[in-house]
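Hi all, posting the design record for the shared folder.

TITLE: backbone redesign
STEP: 1 of 1
STRUCTURE INPUT:
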């Protein structure tokens, strides 16, 4: 248990703690603070993985916490930014639907088989996450700096993210079905 309490996991927990702080900053229209907190959360995402690999301090807890922190950050910001009109609802719908379908599929396979399936992110899924976070960061920046010369940049990045997310969702469903069919009868 002690090896789970390390610097990479602490950074991941800080990223999770940043989620309500970002939402509170958005509620108070402190857009510069919301952007700064989001940027810092993004840095912890890269830093925790780097430190875990370099110091050989990867943990099972970290393997679960890291994607949970990413999903929590992305989904809560998509919801909040959609509600205030900074992100189109269709982007939220596609990304949230994919996550619900994947989670439901995973749980269904677990309850039907009693076995867990290893969930390794696909390259498409990694790119989708990159564009999700980049698009959200740009949208937050545009709330802070509304005079930016390319106001549609955030929407364009999120449209790419939504497309990649949908493709990754199909890949994950395909993987799950393939895994299920390959099991011994």
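Okay, here is what came back for every position:
SEQUENCE:
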């Amino acid at each position: 248990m002690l090896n789970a309490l390390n610097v990479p996991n602490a950074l991941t927990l800080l990223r999770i703690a940043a989620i309500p702080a970002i939402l509170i900053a958005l509620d108070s229209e402190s857009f510069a603070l919301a952007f700064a907190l989001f940027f810092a959360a993004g840095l912890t995402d890269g830093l925790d993985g780097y430190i875990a690999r370099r110091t050989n301090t990867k943990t099972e807890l970290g393997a679960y916490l890291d994607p949970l922190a990413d999903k929590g950050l992305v989904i809560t910001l998509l919801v909040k930014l959609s509600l205030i009109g900074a992100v189109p609802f269709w982007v939220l719908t596609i990304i949230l639907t994919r996550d619900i379908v994947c989670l439901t599929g995973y749980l269904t396979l677990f309850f039907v088989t009693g076995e867990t399936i290893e969930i390794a992110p696909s390259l498409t899924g990694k790119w989708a996450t990159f564009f999700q976070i980049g698009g959200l960061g740009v949208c937050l920046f545009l709330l802070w700096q509304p005079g930016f010369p390319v106001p549609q940049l955030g929407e364009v990045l999120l449209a790419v993210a939504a497309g990649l997310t949908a493709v990754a969702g199909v890949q994950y469903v395909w993987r799950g079905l393939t895994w299920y069919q390959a099991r011994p009868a």
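COMMENT: DSSP finds six helices and no strands in the chain.
Let me know if anyone wants the other runs.
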